[in-house]
TrEMBL record:
Recorded family membership: Belongs to the amidase family. GatA subfamily.
GO biological process: translation
Catalytic reaction list: L-glutamyl-tRNA(Gln) + L-glutamine + ATP + H2O = L-glutaminyl-tRNA(Gln) + L-glutamate + ADP + phosphate + H(+)
Example of a GO cellular component annotation carried by this entry: glutamyl-tRNA(Gln) amidotransferase complex
Recorded name of the encoding gene: gatA
Protein's recorded name: Glutamyl-tRNA(Gln) amidotransferase subunit A
Annotated GO MF terms: ATP binding; glutaminyl-tRNA synthase (glutamine-hydrolyzing) activity; transferase activity
DNA repair found in the keyword field: no
InterPro entries linked to this entry: Amidase, Amidase_CS, Amidase_dom, AS_sf, GatA
Described purpose of this protein according to its UniProt entry: Allows the formation of correctly charged Gln-tRNA(Gln) through the transamidation of misacylated Glu-tRNA(Gln) in organisms which lack glutaminyl-tRNA synthetase. The reaction takes place in the presence of glutamine and ATP through an activated gamma-phospho-Glu-tRNA(Gln).
UniProt organism field: Sphingorhabdus lutea
Quaternary organization: Heterotrimer of A, B and C subunits.
Keywords: ATP-binding, Ligase, Nucleotide-binding, Protein biosynthesis, Transferase
Amino acid sequence: MSDLTQLGIAAIRDGVANGEFKAVEVAEAFNANVAAASSALNAFIVETPELAVQAAQAVDADRAAGKALGSMAGVPIGMKDLFCTNGTQTTAASQMLEGFTPTYESTVSANLWAAGAGMLGKLNLDQFAMGSSNETSYFGNVISPWKLDDGKDRAPGGSSGGSSAAISARLCPAATGTDTGGSIRQPAAFTGITGIKPTYGRCSRWGVVAFASSLDQAGPMAHDVRDCAIMLGAMAGYDPKDSTSLNLSVPNWEAALNSDLRGKKVGVPREYRMDGTDADILESWDRGIEWLKDAGAEIVEISLPHTKYALPAYYIIAPAEASSNLARYDGVRYGLRDLPDGAGLQDMYAATRAAGFGPEVKRRIMIGTYVLSAGFYDAYYTQAQKVRTLIARDFAEAFTQCDVILAPTTPTAAFPLGENSEDPLAMYLNDVFAVPASLAGLPAMSVPCGLNKDGLPLGLQIIGNQLDEQGVLNAGLAIEERAGFVAQPKKWW
Ligand SMILES: NC(=O)C[C@H](N)C(=O)O
């Protein structure tokens, strides 16, 4: 194989296991790509080439000794900088945590290392995972490798934009993401890669910097459905350290992949045909419906009547939880401390939080504090929780009529950087198709389905019932096989 960085997880794992190439060669090839793209794409906050090589050496040694290899053996990955990594700086892309080096490892990253993966570095993201374009990062925005002739820099999506950019530019074959309201799916759609948010509770949140704890879920981002199935299998599993972790065994999703959808019903939600959605996206949705029919599925129209309330409910619940979670950054325990001369404790809190949080994080803390305040709690927070229940019920009802749901991932393709940054509502609208599944805790995936008329990637979303990652992956595979998406960004970095 001439260019090892063109390979995904399955091909690397198999090639290392068969002795076609060494894990160290793979790590070095990706390290070289990371180094070459460092300043142009800004996808990594910290690069750890030595850790990638060390993990690969251990895999090569195990293979030479005839030991059994893990499901991710020899695969170097990028780690979203929201996962605590023992001994490597973890910042959540904030000034607040700049220089914070955890003394413990998140459960998900520990699971990946135990499966034989190695770390290429910590990936950039929107600050505290709040954003849809990566422009809220304290370390500067990631630039999507996808460029058009207009020469404009485009958003790689967010919040997992370092992950999406790095995978599509072949700086890593896969990366972790987290998804609170679209943060895996929207960046995957913007960059022509695949990403799945599993059922809430599948992956432990222990050691993941908290944003909105009732919504936050980790998941894999990779080139294709098989790679996502493999990596999710390595990430997931019961963890007594996370009280919302599901005490269930992890299915072998890869072994059960099957794109034959005969006997399956695919729901197409009427309410997702929304004004403001690009014509290209609506066309790709129609094509997706035809592909799933071709795979043997029966298409049924379904109704998710409370869809239009999902976005407002999300932008109440997520900030409410964020305002509570982020109260811990007080300058006392860890992270930044700003202490003006002669100041007291209150002044220290205020100065620390004023300096350490960026504008979007402050906006959400203020919204969250407002909707939780005594006079407004019932009017906003309680109402939003009721809406959340109705949305979950809509899905439960829909899944009596279909097995999986097909929808667009985003209303538009990747937008130029700066285009939405002055208008938070326009930015939030990007999440319109993603947040309903988040509020209901359902598994949902984005699969690339083609390019729009300008040449930018588009994604289709598959939403499944609770715990039915397999159904989501199988429908995703049926789309992937028919879309034949092989486009890559033209290399300019
Ligand atoms: N964190 C996420 O899932 C991204 C979403 N756009 C948000 O800003 O909340």
